[in-house]
Q: What sequence folds into this?
């Protein structure tokens, strides 16, 4: 299968709702990054994690290398959170390239 | 105030021609990368450079040649363009090569007719 599987492919939320996105890895990864791609196509870096959990405002991300997954939680969703969210991981073996998931298209509705 | 500049923003080319995509970063980073985003594929890694030295190349075709004239520049020359090369090309940089946050430029959207 794909080295980085991202779920769900698409998600719709009402403003104020909470939700979570997940990436599963087929192999042990060194680190993970999360990005938001906005409507202009710009990739905005949200988090870099080599382990554990990080929070930034309404966003929280966890990376468990041993269990081979990472999550991104969005609290109190806002309209500007709409976009496509990508996780990207660096594999334990090999180079430092980022391997991207196929993304979760998030739509926040008023 | 953009810290990673990619030029041009949009590019239309004819099949068989050659184009150069420009990337400059003003973050003081030592590593730079190229990625490609096609319509039906996840973002794909192409190249990584550290201190102007090629570290990794995952591009099968020699038609794609990165060029680094300065530490904060990593251009991408594409020769003998094909319609399948149509994609958005993203440049990225990080402080260190590997194990560090990568920041992405706004991308160059290339259309090959």
A:
């Amino acid at each position: 299968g794909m080295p980085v599987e991202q779920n769900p492919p698409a998600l719709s939320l009402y403003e104020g709702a909470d939700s979570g996105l997940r990436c599963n890895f087929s192999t042990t990864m060194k680190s993970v990054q999360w990005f938001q791609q906005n409507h202009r196509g710009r990739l905005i870096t949200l988090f870099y994690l080599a382990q554990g959990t990080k929070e930034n405002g309404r966003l929280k991300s966890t990376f468990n290398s041993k269990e081979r997954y990472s999550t991104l939680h969005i609290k109190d969703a806002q309209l500007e959170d709409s976009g496509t969210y990508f996780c990207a991981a660096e594999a334990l073996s090999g180079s430092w390239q980022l391997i991207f998931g196929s993304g979760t298209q998030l739509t926040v509705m008023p | 105030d953009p810290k990673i500049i990619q030029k041009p923003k949009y590019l239309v080319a004819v099949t068989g021609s050659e184009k150069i995509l420009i990337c400059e970063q003003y973050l003081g980073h030592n590593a730079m990368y190229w990625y490609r985003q096609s319509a039906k594929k996840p973002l794909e890694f192409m190249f990584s450079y550290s201190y102007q030295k090629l570290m990794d190349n995952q591009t099968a075709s020699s038609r794609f040649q990165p060029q680094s004239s300065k530490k904060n520049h990593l251009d991408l020359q594409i020769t003998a363009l094909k319609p399948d090369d149509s994609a958005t090309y993203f440049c990225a940089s990080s402080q260190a090569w590997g194990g560090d946050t990568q920041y992405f430029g706004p991308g160059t959207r290339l259309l090959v007719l």
In short: Chain B is about 0% helix and 50% strand. The two ends of chain B are 33 Å apart (CA to CA). The mean pLDDT of chain B is 93.
